[in-house]
Each structure stands twice: as structure tokens, then as C-alpha cells.
């Protein structure tokens, strides 16, 4: 026998407040034209009865769903293994929650998922999208643009499908890389290697460019591609040591890559930092403070990047601020010195 109390109705709120059903509907669904004393009576009745507005009805009035899709262009196994994504999602979630919006997480396991994601976004389920970890050949930006969904991207646009003027949030990847390499040179290191990220992502390209701006194009054997994972760092570090056994410093494209490089250096009997100094990128504390030795790294505020992405999107949805969003925001980076360099 189900003795759960019935859900309060709009009519019950109207009766408690002593106003019409239409007045209650305008107040709870964000409409205008109701005098403040009546608004207060309705709000009091809503609180006393525990009334929850019907979201579908509210959307008809406001034309807003108060839901935002977060699209991560990576497979599930990568997203839940890399602390970077957890930090960025935490920042996004905090900002959306603070402004009474729901987060809808969409992941892409492969090419077949792109059409599914674009179809969902075009279906009117969400007010906008936050998209990050894109690859240069990814069709998602073009699909999302054709869907007509307000979007903010994480990372500098690098694709060539007509969306290069997209709104985005990024860190100063190139400047942070320059700072890292200059620090290694200031320590007296002369053979500075770089393990890059996947070069189909603009963040990895920018960090490689920053390295080359300081080191020049000499010594191409000192650059080996990685994939932003510990295993990729291990593979690249072994290759670098086989190619250039006299290297005395490594700038890794992210902290996870650096953690893999440190393991291989330890296996090969190289002392850090005495024999080889190592610097990462991100300053993800679960990684950087727990490596052996603790990792010198370039800090980017990953959580703040997520919050800012959400803030820019919600501002663009506000009619009063729709034209105020900048095309792109680049946050500064900081070198954080620990024991590895």
C-alpha cells in the first residue's frame, strides 16, 4: 500500500497564496508582470507546500532547459583515468550548480558517436554545450555549429572547418613551455629533451612550439612524441635514452607523461635531478606531489578553466550579456618548483 503524500499542484499553491493559477505560473516559471507583494505570497506558499515546478512547463515560458551538455572528445577509459578531466569537470559542475543548471555528460568512444552527440545537441535537450579535448581532425566542431547550439570550447581552436572564431578558454601553453625550458637552461642543462603530447591537439602543438622557441630547431632527435599518458611517457623516455644517452633534462608535455619518464629514468639508474632534471605541465597535485621525487611543473588552473567555460556559456545565453563574451580567453601559467628540477 502506497501512502506517499501527493505532489503539490499549481492549483494548491494558488489556493494557499490566494491568487490565480496564472499568477502562480508566471512567478514560478520566471514570467514578468506580477506585483512584488503577490510574488512574495506565491513564494511563501511554494515553500510551505514544497511545490516543485514542472520543468517542461517552465521551459515553454522561459525557452530555457537549464541544462548544459559537456562533451569530452575522448573515450571513457581515458576520461576516468586522467585527473585533468576530473578537475575540469569539477570546475564546470561548480559553476553550473551555482547558477541552477544541470550538467549532461557526453563522451565519444569513436567516430560513430559524433553523429549521435550532434543529433542530441540539435534535439533541443540542452541550452548549450561545453566541448574539450578536441583533436584537429575531429568533425564535432562543424557538426555542433550546424546544430546551432551555443558552444564554448576548451582549448585553442585549431580545426579548419569554419569555426576558428569560436569562443574558447585555454592556458598559455606556449609561454608555460618557454618558462620550463628556460628554467632547465638556467640550471646549466645543455641537452634538454621534450616528450610532446599528441600533435593532433593544439595544447601539445603550442607546448612543442614553446620548447622550440627557446631551444631552436637543433637536435631534432631530442623530441619524441607522447600521448599525455604515463605509458606514453615511459615509451618516449626509453626512446630518448637510446637515442641520446647524454641528455641531462626533459620537459614533458604533462604531468602524467613526466611520471612515466621518471619511472624509466629510475629503472635505467639515472638520478633525478642530479643526472637528469625533469619538468612536467599541469600541476595536478595527485600526480605532481606523489612522484619520486616530487615534480617541478608548469601550473595551469584547470578547475578555473572549467568554471570560466561554464561562465562564458551562461553569459552568452543571457539576453542582457549575449554580446559581451570575448572570442577567446587565455589564462596565465606559473612554474612550480619542486625536487625534480
What do these coordinates show?
This protein is elongated. The chain is of the alpha/beta class. It has 14 helices and 12 strands. α12 (255-267) links the parallel β8 and β9. Helix content is 45%, strand content 16%.
Summarize the structure.
By secondary structure, the chain is an alpha/beta fold. It has 14 helices and twelve strands.
Topology:
Blueprint: H1 10-17, H2 21-28, H3 36-49, H4 55-62, E1 67-72, H5 76-79, H6 83-98, E2 102-107, H7 112-122, E3 128-132, H8 140-147, E4 151-154, E5 168-171, H9 173-186, E6 192-196, H10 202-215, E7 223-225, H11 230-243, E8 249-252, H12 255-267, E9 277-282, H13 285-288, E10 296-299, H14 302-317, E11 328-331, E12 334-336
Parallel strand pairs: 1-2, 1-3, 3-4, 4-5, 5-11, 6-7, 6-8, 8-9, 9-10
Antiparallel strand pairs: 10-12
Helix pairs in contact: 1-2, 1-3, 2-3, 6-14, 7-8, 9-10, 11-12
List the defining traits of the structure above.
six-stranded parallel beta sheet; six-stranded mixed beta sheet; 12 strands; about 45% helix; alpha/beta
Strand content: 15-25%
* Overall mean confidence score, pLDDT: 88
Low-confidence segments: none
Helicity, as a percent range: 40-55%
Q: Termini distance? A: 68 Å
- What is the number of E strands? 12
Total helix count?
14
Structural class: alpha/beta
How would you describe the oligomerization state of the chains in this entry? single chain
- Shape estimate: elongated
Radius of gyration: 25 Å
Q: Could you describe the largest sheet, including whether it forms a barrel?
A: 6 strands, parallel
Query: Can you write the helix and strand succession as a string?
Result: HHHHEHHEHEHEEHEHEHEHEHEHEE
Neighbour order of strands in the largest sheet:
2-1-3-4-5-11
Amino acid at each position: 500500500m502506497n501512502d506517499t503524500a501527493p505532489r503539490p499542484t499549481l492549483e494548491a499553491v494558488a489556493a494557499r497564496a490566494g491568487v490565480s493559477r496564472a499568477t502562480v505560473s508566471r512567478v514560478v516559471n520566471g514570467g514578468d508582470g506580477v506585483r512584488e507583494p503577490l510574488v512574495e505570497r506565491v513564494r511563501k506558499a511554494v515553500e510551505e507546500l514544497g511545490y516543485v515546478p514542472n520543468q517542461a512547463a517552465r521551459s515553454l515560458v522561459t525557452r530555457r532547459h537549464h541544462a548544459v551538455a559537456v562533451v569530452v572528445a575522448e573515450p571513457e577509459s581515458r576520461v576516468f583515468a586522467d585527473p585533468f578531466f576530473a578537475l575540469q569537470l569539477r570546475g564546470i559542475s561548480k559553476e553550473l550548480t551555482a547558477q541552477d543548471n544541470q550538467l549532461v555528460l557526453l563522451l565519444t568512444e569513436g567516430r560513430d558517436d559524433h553523429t549521435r552527440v550532434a543529433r542530441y545537441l540539435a534535439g533541443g535537450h540542452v541550452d548549450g554545450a561545453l566541448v574539450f579535448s578536441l583533436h584537429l581532425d575531429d568533425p564535432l566542431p562543424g557538426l555542433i555549429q550546424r546544430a546551432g547550439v551555443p558552444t564554448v570550447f576548451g582549448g585553442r581552436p585549431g580545426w579548419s572547418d569554419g569555426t576558428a572564431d569560436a569562443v574558447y578558454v585555454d592556458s598559455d601553453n606556449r609561454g608555460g613551455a618557454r618558462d620550463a625550458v628556460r628554467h632547465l637552461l638556467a640550471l646549466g642543462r645543455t641537452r634538454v629533451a621534450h616528450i610532446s603530447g599528441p600533435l593532433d591537439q593544439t595544447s601539445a602543438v603550442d607546448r612543442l612550439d614553446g620548447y622550440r622557441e627557446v631551444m631552436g630547431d637543433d637536435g631534432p632527435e631530442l623530441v619524441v612524441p607522447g600521448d599525455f599518458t604515463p605509458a606514453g611517457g615511459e615509451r618516449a623516455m626509453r626512446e630518448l635514452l637510446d637515442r641520446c644517452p647524454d641528455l641531462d633534462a626533459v620537459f614533458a608535455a604533462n604531468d602524467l607523461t613526466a611520471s612515466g619518464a621518471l619511472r624509466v629514468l629510475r629503472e635505467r639508474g639515472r638520478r633525478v635531478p642530479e643526472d637528469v632534471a625533469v619538468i612536467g605541465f599541469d600541476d595536478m597535485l595527485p600526480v605532481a606531489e606523489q612522484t619520486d621525487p616530487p615534480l617541478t611543473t608548469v601550473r595551469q588552473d584547470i578547475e578555473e578553466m572549467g568554471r570560466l567555460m561554464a561562465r562564458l556559456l551562461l553569459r552568452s545565453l543571457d539576453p542582457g550579456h549575449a554580446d559581451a563574451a570575448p572570442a577567446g580567453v587565455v589564462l596565465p601559467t606559473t612554474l612550480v618548483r619542486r625536487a625534480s628540477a
